[in-house]
Specification:
There is one protein chain. The protein has about 350 residues and is α+β, with helices and mostly antiparallel strands. About 25% of the residues lie in helices and about 35% in strands. It has ten helices and 20 strands. The strands form five sheets. Strands 6-7-8-3-9-10 form a six-stranded mixed sheet, sandwiched between helices. A five-stranded antiparallel sheet has the order 15-19-16-17-18, with no helix packed on it. It has a four-stranded antiparallel sheet with strand order 2-1-4-5, covered by helices on one side. The radius of gyration is 25 Å and the shape is globular. The two termini are about 35 Å apart. Bound molecules: adenosine-5'-diphosphate. Adenosine-5'-diphosphate (ADP) binds next to helix 1.
Length: about 350
Amino acid sequence: MSYLVLKDINKIYPNGYHAVHNFNLDIEKGEFIVFVGPSGCGKSTTLRMIAGLEDISSGDFLIDGKRANEWGPQQREIAMVFQSYALYPQMTVFDNIAFGLTLAGVDEDVIEERVKNTARILGLTDYLDRLPRALSGGQRQRVAIGRAIIRKVGIFLMDEPLSNLDAKQRVTMRSEIAQIHQETGATTIYVTHDQTEAMTLADRIVVMKDGYVQQIGTPYELYYKPENVFVAGFIGEPPMNFVTGIVKDGKIPFGKNQLDVAKKLGQKAAEYEGEKIVLGFRPEAIELGEIEDACHVEADVELTEMLGDNTNVYITAGEEKAILKVDPHDTPEMDSTITFSIPYESIYLFDGETEAVIS
Ligand code: ADP
């Protein structure tokens, strides 16, 4: 059995709000799991139920095969890092990191050795005598992480730990968190609304929306095999382009172009004739010009953004808009008309009613 099991977990707050619906997830020992989704989708609520800070309304939570619903946070042997660092301002970095061990009455020699080792992992060795106010935001967050990992617990929970940092610090800390996970091997559950953080850190990602799990998978699976329109649009930057239309003679209109969806639908083509369908294609999945085995689209260039390694091209086709990612050397002129191809293999089709993927 998996190390952590969440089975049909629900959270209904005392005011009646149903924040988490039938959450199911098995987590293996040492896995790095990321909960991602827009603000208010139930990520923190789920994490807090795992931490024992919030009651589980129904369902089973198992740690190492034992039902832990009623266990207190201490008994769960979980360490948690929050968005706010919550350091003790009057204590040095050393004492902040050592705090949990001191409280537990651990031997001073052992504390000293473990604090030094933790500080080394986190690059804080030269700052142990400082007070938190003499540290940068990134360093403070490292102290908070140090305080958590020094306890050598098996389960490590992080709730938006990077959101108080600036963009550059976030990138640095992101790779440090990945390294810390490598070194400690702790089972980690990490909450973020940032899909880049999710994609770069996770072994597996849980995408949530409105209290419901939308999909669970590796970063690769979520990017290449999204199960619905929401996941397809949430993972990837710029997001996937969508064209919605009623299928007529196996095609849907995109401006004055006709996109052949029947080819992709195969045997289901008849079933979808006259039905609403959503066609998705990623900005980076197109080719300029006309290639074989592709839908061809004529479009007007509204705006181009040269970003160095690629250019984002904002196009319109009739009323529809889309973003294309092209090689900067191929950047089209503003206000020009271009033709591009969407290879059939890069087209996603979703049911217009359920928004679930068809093919
Ligand atoms: P996220 O972490 O994804 O931003 P949360 O888990 O914090 O979302 O919240 C999920 C939903 O539950 C939100 O709509 C939020 O307003 C609601 N919520 C959170 N805490 C409480 C509470 N104590 N009582 C009632 N509703 C709450």
